[in-house]
Amino acid sequence: MKRWVWLAIAGVVILWASGGATSTVQRIANAIAYAEGFNVPNSRAARNRNPGNLTASFGFPVEWDGMFAIFQTLEDGWTALRMQVQMMRDGSSTYYDPTMSIEQIAQVYTATDPSAWASNVAAQLGVSVTTPIGAI
């Protein structure tokens, strides 16, 4: 068999084993990272390896940039953000619960411009700002 056929089969097997498409938690994490400016070169989120601009360490060893965690690795930063999103969705967060809309979450998550943040997250997810985080 040609090499590209084997690569295609391997890709299908990997997708099947990982549950297919990107998980909902990762999709929400990606949307938050976008709203936090992680995709902007040299932004605080990018410099700090903290795609969610988190203000908690989630058990990872960190240094601090003011109130924002500086993660040792980018994977630590992504894992911490996924942990935050999972807690939002499963009700184990102190600040968020699954019935909160993206708009309500923005009021707690960011002080810069909650309306713009909520619009950015919702647009990335293809939902309304009034959509509860647990319904995504």
Largest sheet: 2 strands, antiparallel
As residue ranges, the low-confidence spans are 1-20
Cα Rg: 17 Å
Apparent shape: globular
* Strand content range: 5-15%
N- and C-termini, Cα separation: 41 Å
Overall number of domains:
1
Provide the succession of SSEs: HHHEEHHH
The percent of residues in helical segments reads 40-55%
Going across the major beta sheet, what is the strand order?
1-2
Total count of strands: 2
Task: Give the overall average pLDDT.
Answer: 88
Number of helices: 6
Estimated structural class: mainly alpha
Assembly category: single chain
TL;DR?
With 136 residues, the chain is mainly alpha-helical.
Describe what this molecule looks like in 3D.
The structure is a single chain. The protein is mainly alpha-helical. It has one domain (23-135). Helices cover 50% and strands 6% of the residues. It has 6 helices and 2 strands, in the order H-H-H-E-E-H-H-H. It has helices at residues 3-17, 24-35, 44-47, 74-90, 102-109, 114-125, and strands at residues 62-65, 68-71. The chain has a two-stranded antiparallel ribbon. The radius of gyration is 17 Å and the shape is globular.
